[in-house]
From TrEMBL:
This is Anaerobic selenocysteine-containing dehydrogenase. InterPro entries: Asp_de-COase-like_dom_sf, MoPterin_dinucl-bd_dom, Mopterin_OxRdtase, Mopterin_OxRdtase_4Fe-4S_dom, Prok_molybdopt-oxidoreductase. Coiled coil: none annotated. It comes from Nonomuraea jabiensis. PROSITE patterns: 4FE4S_MOW_BIS_MGD. Residues 2-59 form the 4Fe-4S Mo/W bis-MGD-type domain.
């Protein structure tokens, strides 16, 4: 007997609904898009379609591993946890412990619900994550402008008349910090209804090819370009404010230094194009500016992310339909008691400021290598592969080898986890519940969907249980973590005026919660207390209701809600936060600088996902390979053929060339997440490629956020076989 089940795809930010067919043995026999999902409406991509192969990959770990020298031994769970405890007991000072949380934590219930308690239990400030290799500039800009790092406006994709998109390629990535299943279809619909799409990218990507206009920009210079647009709005009297703001005069002052003629040379975008973009943005009935990873992982990432929302504000488009809007997720984040701040503490070695409670992953190697009080000797990684994904990952590869003890929670033995003393594998995807606590906060329509586990755990702990157990080991406190958290949340809610449960009895409310696991009960609580919840009084949302609606629930289009979202001390939008404006000097200082002759950027491929889907046969090969895209003019100028040697300040690689006129002259592109030579993942090893993060530089960061810089890395390129004096 086969069965048909529905669940959310956990692989990227698009949160598509999937319909799976399972045979009697619980094996996936087919995966289709779920036509009844009100948000994704049947959309699916090749990754979602291969979920079955991934779920049953013979190379994935099923039991814990303990490393003894170079040998791995499969052990039972109790032995594995005892080994972790023994490793941690050897640490005299918790300041010597560190944790790294990788990208899949943003997709899993375990990451959302148990990451923070684990950090607290470990009691260290050495907290690192993929966020400082990704979107930290956006959190810092939003935190300082709107008072909350998660107050991130998204383009109102389905209604906007004009979309200016920088450094994003949703036709490959399916979107990021903008949850929108079938992003390609939504962009086509925008154009079909007479809207205009402009894409700014050093490559003519598939997204750019679909747009009305593609603008080539020199890597790393988006902040100049955006300032040029802001300058024009002021110069031509095109500013229309729809909200009261602080700092308008400071923004106008700062923008004076960046007239279009001055930034044209640096950005490669002609002055008349910059002026026209400003006029178009101002004239559009509604418009949104949206910028992603190409602009975040850059030297001026925070300035660029800030200017994106400055433009949304200055054109009157923030918080209005068709503009840039704040989603209202069903498990809405709580209020912040203190104003958002960055730099509350600094890293030990380089003195880099904390943001969102994290230190930059760009300095993790320093903390492991540098002796002294607080030197990191014990590391936990959860769902991360920083050896391939962090800037100058090659250095981390060596640094991890020097740790006293390392624990990894991961389904693969890979470039990072090979250094662990203990690897704890999560169960199969189909054995886990799924709710997108994080990603639904960035959705272009309000929506909720819960996927319960489809298969039993068979004695193996869930990932939630693994993380909770690690927290118990680290804190030394026994007890039920979930019931503790539930008690705390209920206590706060019953003491908060207007919470819908003010003055009610905690035990009584606790007894009303449903759910098979602690995670489900916490979800039920958050839904009931959330803006559509049955307790908050504005709806009837609960776990039960989501279980009764397995295709998901549409909660309506985005609505203006700035008043609810703003958490700044002034109660106004802070258009010119001092910590950001301070960095404008650095930008000005480089305005006249001659750009390097050749710079390196990254790219994504539809069938890839950072470093960890290269072991799924149907996804690798063909156009999804690790090649260096280079303009034919550069190939000819440098006398290259077939392969070339790329050198940076940090390392060198020999790579196959892919000449294409879709990339600007003077720019080359190499995807990240490759470099699987010698991997125990058999398919990935056959498609090894090289790691671009051998070349990237951990000493360069976006200053306000500490974010890594992956785009605009200076490199030189020479034919293979030519010996260059170093
Ligand atoms: N298929 C696939 N999907 C993914 C992922 C994946 O690896 N593969 N990863 C997921 C993750 S973790 C994330 S964060 C998202 C990212 O989602 P996106 O931000 O859409 O990521 P990319 O496809 O890398 O698009 C970035 C674009 O920026 C361009 N670019 C590079 N440098 C610059 C610059 O200086 N300025 C400008 N304006 N553009 C520049 C690149 O050419 C590229 O086209 O994708 C997610 N989805
Ligand atoms: N040069 C360059 N470098 C980049 C980028 C770039 O554009 N260019 N992009 C950056 C970005 S945006 C990101 S987000 C980071 C990603 O950085 P990381 O998060 O460090 O890297 P991933 O490749 O996503 O690694 C995910 C790991 O989690 C494991 N995993 C997958 N699912 C699960 C699960 O459910 N549970 C557990 N426990 N483990 C799981 C996988 O096996 C893999 O080891 O890379 C960054 N690095
Ligand atoms: S677009 Fe993303 S969420 Fe949708 S099927 Fe593909 S990988 Fe899964
Ligand atoms: Mo990312």
């Amino acid at each position: 007997m086969t069965s048909t089940v529905h669940r959310t795809c956990p692989l990227c930010e698009a949160v598509c609904g999937l319909t799976l067919t399972l045979d009697e043995g619980g094996h996936v026999t087919s995966v289709r898009g779920d036509k009844d999902d009100p948000f994704s409406k049947g959309f699916i991509c090749p990754k979602g379609a291969s979920l079955g192969q991934l779920d049953e990959d013979p190379d994935r770990l099923r039991r814990p591993l303990i490393r003894e020298g170079d040998l791995w031994r499969e052990v039972g769970w109790e032995e594995a946890f005892a080994a972790v405890k023994a490793g941690l007991d050897r640490v005299a000072d918790r300041r010597s412990t560190a944790i790294y949380l990788g990208n899949p934590n943003a997709h899993s219930m375990a990451g959302a619900l148990y990451g923070a308690p684990l950090i607290r239990a470990l009691g260290t400030r050495n907290v690192y994550s993929a966020s400082t290799a990704d979107q930290m500039p956006k959190h810092v800009a939003s935190g300082l402008m709107f008072g909350h790092p998660l107050a991130i406006p998204v383009p109102d994709l389905d209604r906007t008349d004009y979309l200016l998109m920088l450094g994003a390629n949703p036709l490959e990535s399916n979107g990021s910090l903008c949850t929108a299943p079938d992003f390609p279809g939504r962009l086509k619909a925008l154009r079909a209804r007479g809207g205009r799409l402009v894409v700014v990218d050093p490559r003519r990507t598939r997204t750019a090819a679909l747009a009305d206009e593609h603008v080539f920009v020199r890597p790393g210079t988006d902040a100049y370009l955006l300032f040029g647009i802001v300058h024009t709005l002021f110069a031509e009297d095109l500013v229309t404010l729809a909200h009261q703001v602080n700092g308008l005069a400071e923004v106008r002052e700062a923008a004076k230094h960046f007239p279009p003629e001055a930034v044209a040379r640096r950005t490669g975008v002609p002055a008349e194009v910059i002026v026209r973009l400003a006029r178009e943005l101002a004239a559009a009935r509604t418009a949104a500016v949206y910028a992603r990873i190409g602009t975040c992982t850059a030297e001026f990432g925070t300035l660029a992310q800030w200017l994106v929302d400055v433009l949304n504000v200055l054109t009157g488009n923030l918080d209005r339909p068709g503009g840039a809007m704040f989603p209202k997720p069903a498990t809405e984040f709580g209020a912040r008691r203190k104003p958002y701040a960055v730099g509350r503490w600094k890293s030990r070695v380089r003195g880099l400021p904390e943001s969102n409670g994290e230190l930059p992953v760009a300095t993790l190697a320093d903390e492991i290598e540098t002796p002294g009080e607080g030197q990191v000797t014990f590391l936990i990684t959860v769902a991360g592969n920083p050896v391939l994904s962090a800037p100058h990952g090659a250095r981390l590869d060596a640094a991890f080898g020097r740790l006293d003890f390392m624990v990894s929670v991961d389904l693969y033995l890979n470039e990072t986890t090979k250094h662990a003393n203990v690897i704890l594998p999560p169960p199969r995807m189909l054995q886990s519940g799924h709710y997108d606590f994080t990603l639904l906060g960035f959705a272009v329509r309000n929506y909720a969907r819960y996927s319960p586990p489809l298969l039993p755990l068979d004695g193996q702990p869930s990932e939630a249980q693994i993380l909770a157990r690690l927290a118990v080991i680290a804190s030394g406190l026994e007890g039920d973590l979930d019931e503790f958290v539930i008690g705390e949340m209920l206590r706060k809610a019953t003491e908060t005026p207007g919470s819908g449960v003010e003055g009610r009895d905690v035990a009584e409310l606790r007894a009303e919660l449903e759910g098979e696991t602690g995670g489900e009960r916490r979800l039920d609580l958050m839904l009931k207390l959330g803006p559509y919840g049955e307790w908050a009084g504005k709806g009837d949302l609960s776990l039960r209701k989501l279980l009764d609606n397995p295709h998901g629930l549409d909660l309506g289009p985005l609505e203006p809600r700035l008043g609810e979202v703003l958490k700044t001390a002034s109660g106004l939008i802070e258009l010119a936060p001092p910590q950001i404006v301070e960095d404008v000097e650095r930008l000005r200082g480089k305005l006249e600088e001659d750009p390097p002759e050749i710079v390196l950027i990254g790219r994504r491929h539809l069938r890839s996902n950072n470093s960890w889907l290269h072991n799924v046969g149907p996804l690798v090969g063909g156009s999804n390979t690790c090649t260096l895209q280079i303009n034919p003019a550069d190939v000819a100028r440098l006398g290259l053929d077939g392969e070339a040697v790329v050198r940076s300040a940090k390392g060198q690689l020999t790579v196959p060339l892919e000449p294409t006129d879709t990339i600007m002259p003077g720019v080359v592109s190499l995807p990240h997440g490759w470099g699987h030579a010698g991997s125990s993942q058999s398919v990935a090893a056959e498609h090894a490629g090289v790691s671009v993060n051998t070349l990237t530089d951990e000493s360069t960061i976006d200053v306000p956020s500490g974010n890594a810089v992956f785009n605009g890395v200076p490199v030189t390129i020479s034919p293979t076989g030519v010996i260059i004096a170093q």
